[in-house]
Amino acid sequence: MRRRTEQGTAIVEFSWLAILLLVPLVYIVLGVLDTQRTAFAATTAARSATRAFVTSPDEASAPARARAAARLAFADQGLDQAPLDLRLHCTPQPSNCLSPGSVVFAEVRSSVRLPLFPAALGHQAPAVAVDASHQSPYGTFREDRP
């Protein structure tokens, strides 16, 4: 009877162990990177939206400029098709946002679908919610814009 030695099996065991550990690690890293990219986009979108709103020539064009700035911030991160929910409001007079002493608030909400999630498992892929907010003062010593 011939005895089998374990010579050469260490490389096989190491290879299987590396595959079993690296595949989930790569998946987690991809998910974290996508989430971080969306978080950067949401933060930049909120900041850009309030700045675009405050620098608008009039209050009628301000919301459209803010939405365009937010969408551009998402496009800058390569998230052209990502969901984007932008909510704008101001204090102390919600009806007159471009008056001296006003502060414009922007809240951006989005979500990140987990990467490489197969469509065969359902249309509702798991997602991570991302949100950001920013406020910009209009300024006390500026003229009131209609």
TrEMBL record:
The chain crosses the membrane at residues 12-33. The keyword Transmembrane helix applies. Keywords: Membrane, Transmembrane, Transmembrane helix. This is Pilus assembly protein. It comes from Nocardioides mangrovicus.
